Amino acid sequence: MRLGEARDAITNFKKITGDQLRTLDLMLFYVEVGTEFTNTYGDIDGRFYDSMISMYNKVISECAKDEKLFKIFHDRLSSVIEDSSGIGWGYHDALWDLYLSLEWVADEE
């Protein structure tokens, strides 16, 4: 995986389209694919997980501002946490903590 190229593609997509919803979709897809990659090929390194956490945090930050976005992405946000269970480097815990920081989570439970 070439993380830099993927992040650049997301940034360019955002600039070109200005489409917040689809940009967030791509950002979350980035994290989903990274998590799947780790589960398929094994542990990577801290920098890899930092990139995944950073991207997940960007999605969480936007969802924190708009409950509609949270409702759109809720299932995927929680699924990636489930899929990250057992992955090292504090990855799972970091995603879980970010997710729990959303005020909307308590409303869903």
Give a verbal description of the structure.
With 109 residues, the chain is mostly helical. It has one domain (3-100). Helix content is 83%, strand content 0%. It is built from 6 helices and no strands. It has helices spanning 3-17, 20-41, 46-65, 67-83, 91-100, 103-108. Helix 1 (3-17) runs antiparallel to helix 2. The longest helix has 22 residues, at 20-41. The protein is globular and about 35 Å long. The mean pLDDT is 95.
Helical element count?
6
Element string (H = helix, E = strand): HHHHHH
Percent of residues in β-strands: under 5%
Number of strands: 0
Tell me the count of domains: 1
Measured on Cα atoms, how large is the radius of gyration?
13 Å
The average pLDDT is 95
Structural class call reads mainly alpha
End-to-end Cα distance, whole Å, is 35 Å
